Amino acid sequence: MKKKLISTIIAATLVASTFLLGACGGNDGDTAADTGNETVTEDETDDAAPPADDVEEPDDFETGTVGTINVGIWDSNQRPGLQQIADLFTEETGIPVEISVVPWGEYWTMLEAAAAGGDLPDVMWMHSNEIQRYMDNGMLMNLNDMIAASDLLDMSAFPAGLVELYQDNGNQYGIPKDIDTIALWYNIEMFDAAGVDTPTEDWTWEDFYEAAVALTDADNGIWGTSWAPGDNQVGYWNVIYSFGGYVINDAQDASGFDNPETIRAMEFTERLVRNAMPPVEIQAENEKSVLFGAGSIAMTTEGAWMIPAFKENEAFHENVGVAMLPVDAVTGRRASIENGLGWSVAANTDMAEEAMALVEWFGSEAMQRMQAELGVTMAAFEGVSDDWVNNTDLWDLTPYVELLDYAVQRPYSRNTTVWEFTINDMLMEVWAGTADLHETLDAIVVMMNDALANE
Amino acid sequence: MARRKSANLWGWLFVLPTIIGLIVLNIYPMIRTIWQSFHRVGDFGLGNEFVGMDNYERLFAGGIFGAEIWQAAANTIFYTLLEVPLSIVIALILAVFLNGKIRGRTTFRVIFFLPMIVAPAAVAMVWRWLFNTEFGLINNVFGIRVSWLSNPNIALFSLAIIGIWSVIGYNMILFLASLQDVPRDYYEAASIDGASPIRQFFSITLPLISPMIFFVTVTRVIAGLQIFDSIFMIMGMGTGGNPALPRTQSLVYIFYRYAFINRNWGMGATVVVFLLVLIALVTAVQMIAQKKWVHYN
Amino acid sequence: MKTKAGNVEKSSKLGRILVYIILLIVSFTMLVPFLWMVLTAFMTQTESTQVNPFVIIPANWQLNNFRDVIDSMNFMRLYGVTVALIVGRVIAAVLTATLAGYAFARLEFFGKKVLFTIVVVQLMIPSQIFIIPQFQMVQSLGQLDTFFALMFPGLVTAFGTFLLRQAYLGLPRDLEEAAILDGCNIGQVFLFVMAPLVKASMVALGIFTAIFAYRELLWPLIVNRTLLPLSAALASLQGQFVTHFPRLMAAAVLATIPMIIIYLIFQKHFVEGIATAGGKL
């Protein structure tokens, strides 16, 4: 129906122009248009549409080339490295691969819309926030048979938590791509200038707090560290799990913001916000890594995926150290929120074999190792992340790998973004000092439980 | 008789592409959106569940959703009230200046219009950078520390500044065209009577170009009520969140959040219907009010 | 008598100086964002975030940022897509609107009032509300990530139809009547007599369409993955270089320069086009 309407427009335009080419005095021609849209082009439609199509899409702009595997990702920093790996696949199999980047914010909008019409990229990145909805609705291909038949894949070499994340009722819908932890970065010069000892492995969060306060010189635009309310995975969530609290329960049906340890962690975070962080306005305008690069903050907690960006940012090249995240003095626990993306295949791709072969390729030990060596990201495959540490001489990245031992899966549920973003908005007022922490936490529990009940 | 029939035929032929296009591209989507506002839309737009007036009740019942939408409506209207009158007044003054004997008129005109041809993404980037509290040009040159884009009490004004900067040249060119149609001898006669330039402006210029002022006002108000790009690109960026967002987000931005981020297409559609009603009301009021001040000759 | 005239002259001279001063100040204000964009694009990251002392002029003008941005974005392709999109949209809009505008202005046909209402109502509706259904249509046509998808929402134009209708309304009736007496049919009257007379409005519509096609943001990002025009690609860059303002500015400069050049060449048409359009509405 819709298709017909479109071609009718095109055809009608063509018909109209034909009429006009006769000389003055000619007659009106037939009366096809008398009754409106229906009759004009019943016959012309088929004839007119193909040439019109040619006009609309010159070959140079044709991108959905048949025989090419389309891959959708959101991080352009990783594209060059992944393209190298994909090129090896093309060499091996002769199947071309095209990787396209859509930024995070638009990626899920694009994917949502594409999924609705059954037009997902052949191969795509998946994230813990979103995977469940896609699995539930049959959008992704069950990879069990491919895995069982594969010589290249060894699922036991991936962290069990990650494998489960992309699993539903025993069916595997994603192959772990990478794993990332959060580590602490510090500016050595600023520590020296303030006469504060640089972070060690034994640091407790209280040590972190005291150092942050000692480093803060707000009048001169210098602060200890910075977590915006939206810096959850890279920020205060690490504190929550280190303190023994949680964001969401294991059954994913209740909020953890009424857990006493979570509350204790949030109280700690609030002290940091008040005494050692820039005002929320500055946090909003500048990523903390920009503040760190500019020497406005002395410490920052950053995910492993930021390394490619830091490598190209000369502000990070001198006087910068990387350390473990602190432990909690009460629980003795250390926690680093870990997440890993998955490679998934669209359920209805017309290149199922090829797409699965590519995913298998990305998940193989050799290619996981290559991903690590190239410094694209830490790889999910056990043991290969040592190679990732050597991808640069600029810093000693060992803490990222050591923190894998303390990794906690990023909290998620079926529709994570709904409550995650609302929490950010609600905490914003606590950060800004216009709302009370405990009242806000109570409100978060109500909101979150409500959202989870409606999933 | 034959002519009428042939006019009928040709008329349909000529409007057909446009009408079919508008129905397919605009009318059908609009109806579909309105229809969706009475539904709870399932994952990936599949499985619509009829919920009657539920979405609208949430809009008027208060709670987080209601409060957010009414705040957004207030933001949108306040933004429009800032941007439209100021950009019109400034553009009008500039147009009157350039309508006189001015050297370099073309150069000024080119400069004032320049912002219109910059991609919104570039506009957003450069203003975010200019307005940056820590590293921005404005704060550092004037030695102040104003959080232009993240202080909830200021950000809407900053967005209006960006909006005014973008649109002044466009408004000015329209006014300039209309000013050039005002007969010179009106002014000459007034000068002989001893009327000052300011007096002339109010008694001759303003009434004569009032139809253009009306046109610009109506179209700019509609555009102002639909503000999205700058909020999307400036306030919505960054992972940290912006404390000024609740006090700046517009209705279209709320629609975007509900429909595309929270994937609640039903609520998103409800917000759009609300906006449509608002625009229709405001435009109708202006149409009625014009009789009081617009002079057609 | 003499002194009074002298005063008037003196005050008008003063007034003119004041006018120039105001115009210069406003011009400078309008240009500051452009200047700052260019200056920042030549800075190092360190210079751009240095506050004490604040850097306005980069110490050594370096091209690294431009190089990095060009490395990560294929600007030639982006320019190509953008130009093709603009040309395609302009042709589609001018063609359909010129036809429909004439019919609404001059021909009496069945259902004209209703159809014209459809056109006018559309002028008030925010375009974001069309996005989801339009997306679904492009998708069901199997045309995602194609040039057609970029063109799709701009195939017809209510604004242009309205604009052209106003233009035809301003033309005298006797021209057509003469042509009809000569035995031309309505199509020929339109093509040979009337359409050439509204060229100015067509140019105006073309310019409007070009500007709005160039500025479009959300639609291309949602509908296309690889085939993006400049403006949308630029938005996607913002996420990538979030830590690097000089590179963002370099990208903004590269995206803006071609449009500025086109504008400077055709600025007379831009101004006249918009003035015509406005005058007709």
Which secondary structure elements does this structure contain, and how are they paired or packed?
The complex is a heterotrimer of chains A (455), B (297) and C (281).
Chain A: H1 2-19, H2 37-40, H3 44-56, E1 69-73, H4 79-93, E2 97-101, H5 104-116, E3 123-126, H6 131-136, H7 144-149, H8 160-165, E4 167-168, E5 171-172, E6 175-176, E7 182-187, H9 188-194, H10 205-215, H11 232-242, H12 260-276, H13 280-285, H14 288-293, E8 299-303, H15 307-311, E9 320-323, E10 336-338, E11 342-345, H16 352-363, H17 365-373, H18 385-389, H19 398-402, E12 407-409, H20 416-432, H21 437-453
Parallel strand pairs in A: 1-2, 1-3, 10-12
Antiparallel strand pairs in A: 3-11, 4-5, 6-11, 7-8, 7-9
Helix pairs in contact in A: 1-3, 10-12, 11-12, 20-21
Chain B: H1 2-36, E1 39-41, E2 48-50, H2 54-60, H3 63-99, H4 105-113, H5 120-130, H6 137-142, H7 155-179, H8 184-192, H9 197-208, H10 210-225, H11 229-235, H12 251-261, H13 265-293
Chain C: H1 2-41, H2 45-48, H3 64-72, H4 75-106, H5 112-122, H6 131-140, H7 147-151, H8 158-169, H9 174-181, H10 186-197, H11 199-215, H12 218-223, H13 230-240, H14 245-280
Helix pairs in contact in C: 1-14, 3-14, 4-8, 4-11, 9-10, 11-14, 13-14
Question: What does this protein structure show overall?
Answer:
The complex is a heterotrimer of chains A (455), B (297) and C (281). Chain A is α/β, with parallel strands linked by helices. Chain A has helices spanning 2-19, 37-40, 44-56, 79-93, 104-116, 131-136, 144-149, 160-165, 188-194, 205-215, 232-242, 260-276, 280-285, 288-293, 307-311, 352-363, 365-373, 385-389, 398-402, 416-432, 437-453; strands spanning 69-73, 97-101, 123-126, 167-168, 171-172, 175-176, 182-187, 299-303, 320-323, 336-338, 342-345, 407-409. In chain A, the strands form four sheets. In chain A, strands 2-1-3-11-6 form a five-stranded mixed sheet. Chain A has a three-stranded antiparallel sheet with strand order 8-7-9. The radius of gyration of chain A is 27 Å and the shape is globular. The relative contact order of chain A is 0.14. With 297 residues, chain B is mainly α. In chain B, 72% of the residues lie in helices and 2% in strands. Chain B has a two-stranded antiparallel ribbon with strand order 1-2. In chain B, strand 1 and strand 2 form a beta hairpin. In chain B, helix 3 packs antiparallel against helix 10. The longest helix of chain B has 37 residues, at 63-99. The longest helix of chain C has 40 residues, at 2-41. The relative contact order of chain C is 0.13. Helix content of chain C is 76%, strand content 0%. Mean pLDDT of chain C is 84; it is low at 1-5.
